[in-house]
Amino acid sequence: MIHPQELEVWYVIPAVWREIANELVSMCWKQKDAATVLGVTEAAVSQYANKKRGSGKIILPLEFKNRA
Fold it and tell me: What single DSSP character describes residue 52?
């Protein structure tokens, strides 16, 4: 069983960091400066930009159905 906290750590937080890193880089920030602000390495920011990190899809263990 996957706990909600695991989903946050593995998928949600990296996805948020990816969006922030990409936004900073799109605003002409250097990857080094974006890395300093996020508290990650410059390589991590590069991986966010290249969708090698933080781009996992969240798969929920429960299936939600429309109950009409």
Answer: S
The identity of residue 43, as a single letter, is A
Query: Quick count: other Cβ atoms within 10 Å of Cβ 12?
Result: 15
CA distances (Å), 18 to each of 33, 35, 66, in order? 14, 11, 32
> What pLDDT is attached to residue 17?
87
In angstroms, the Cα distances linking 15 to 29, 37, 45, 64, 67 are: 19, 16, 12, 23, 30
Give 10-residue mean pLDDT values along the chain (68 residues). 82 86 93 93 92 70 50
Reported pTM: 0.70
Provide the CB-side half-sphere exposure for 21 (13 A, CA). 28
Q: Considering just the CA atoms, what is the radius of gyration of the chain in Å?
A: 15
